[in-house]
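User: I'm curious whether this sequence folds into something compact or stays loose and floppy. Could you predict its structure so I can see for myself?
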Amino acid sequence: MIKKMIITAASAATIFGAAAVLPQAGFLMGSDIPAAAAVSGDYEYKALSDGTVKITEYKGKASNLTVPDKLNGKTVSAIGDQAFYQCDLKTVTIPKSVKTLGADSFRESASLTKVTFSGGTTSIGTYSFYGCTSLKTVTLGSGLKDIGTYVFYNCKELTSIKIPDTVTSIGEYCFENCSNLKTATLPAEITEIKDDTFAWCTSLESIRIPNKVKKIGWRAFSSCKEMKSVIMPNSLKTLAEDAFNRCTNLTSISIPNSVTSIGKGAFENCTGLTGVVIPSTVKEIGSYAFGFLHSTGSATHTRISGFTVYGSTYIAEYYAKYDGHKYVDNRMSKCSASIPYSSYTYRGRGIKPTVTVKDSAGNKLKSGTDYSVAYSGNTNAGTATITVTGKGIFTDTLKKKFTVKALDLSSSYAKVSIPYSSYTYTGSAIKPKVTVKFKDGDVIPTGDYTLSYSANTKVGTATITVKGKGSNVTGTYKKTFIVKPAKNEITSISSTKGAFKVNWKKGTAGTVGYQVQYSTDKNFKNNVHSYTSTALSDLSENFSKVPNSGETWYVRVRSFYTKDDKTTSTRYGNYSAVKSIKIK
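Assistant: Here's the prediction. I'll summarize afterward.
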């Protein structure tokens, strides 16, 4: 039997078009097929030296096929080159017994929509599903180790692929031109993303490169126009030429600190990128690697306006300046930090001045995004330190000093308060609770000052002396308050014809006189009369001028005192309870 010949170079060009490189495949004539192949039903097969067989051709017309695991009692261990080439299958299941798929085994089967590997297959040969333009679903089984070149090339309906972790090698051009491929899960054991592996996968939205990959090859993800996220491992050493060229939706990229080489045009035509951080490990950067546009076939590379290169090495700076890009040193030690004042007054807590940080080009950085701030030595009087640590694209640290000065209690920065301005005489020393605050409201710890009281027992003006203690608070502040006479008491009230008499208790120590108020209004708002006596022994008074027979009068009394200088207004104690009397 003569096998079908794979397409000629001329016909291949119509399949690839301008979007792809013409596959460099040989013409397979089925030289592994003996002149007289064995036949079992719809299958031709060849016996192998290990007693198993390899399917060499399928002649059936099934739409949904499960490849048999035995033919004539012999285990099917392989599917040969071109065995199902251009078949009319819609779905196919590969049994566990099949270890290898030969080159072009299902190539250009245009109606094939689903392929399921049951597990056991270790190798898928080159071009196996090349040009299966209707293929939507591929389930790869565990145990698979090798996927050849061009295996899924131009499978335009394939939307996702999950490659098992047993795979150690994926061939070049494997998924190129899979224009509907949105997600791809790569195996943990591969060490390289080879040339053109995912080129022109225009729907691929994101990719996580496995942790053992050292190289991303030429055009590996070129023209993945929907690519928004790329996660690269710290094992990565090389980004080859045009690796992500024309990934127009890529807005940010984080190049690991392990990378040493970035090839020519690696991120050219990535119009969503406004800047890139070049790690200090990078030793070479190819021309037009970042920040340029280049039309196919054109000799002109156009610089992207405003593109910024961040880095800390001569290589990064040279690339930026040679190509006319803005360069920013991303070491925080090359940035500047400023605070509103160089010194602050102690306030009993950590002082945290607002920090403004600018990069080496004078651009203001964003706290929490570009850097974090830590303070030390910022509570007690002395020298405080602000440590600015780079985040995101910024590295290294920057330190800024400021002074914490002692709080002088006699200055305008201190505020001393007590709950009330006056207190009633009790016979004992009165000691109001004292609160010392910084002017903006911060409470100063009580351990930073001492309190002493004077003239705080008798009626009069008492003084509190607040004195700084230790190195944080200095100076002295005096606060006064009033000790008022105790509430007086009417001991008796009586009436005679057209008059009434009032007796009251003697005032407390410091009292200088008494005031009696009487009125026909029990609320003392109308018709109020007062009597004042400055004789401490005067504890009664007869009122006869105002009252009329039959009226009811209301009476109250209070003590008062005056400051020592005799120049201030009279200070009064609280009124006694109100008494009433009906005039005879």
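Summary: Confidence is low (pLDDT under 50) at residues 1-35. The chain is about 5% helix and 35% strand.
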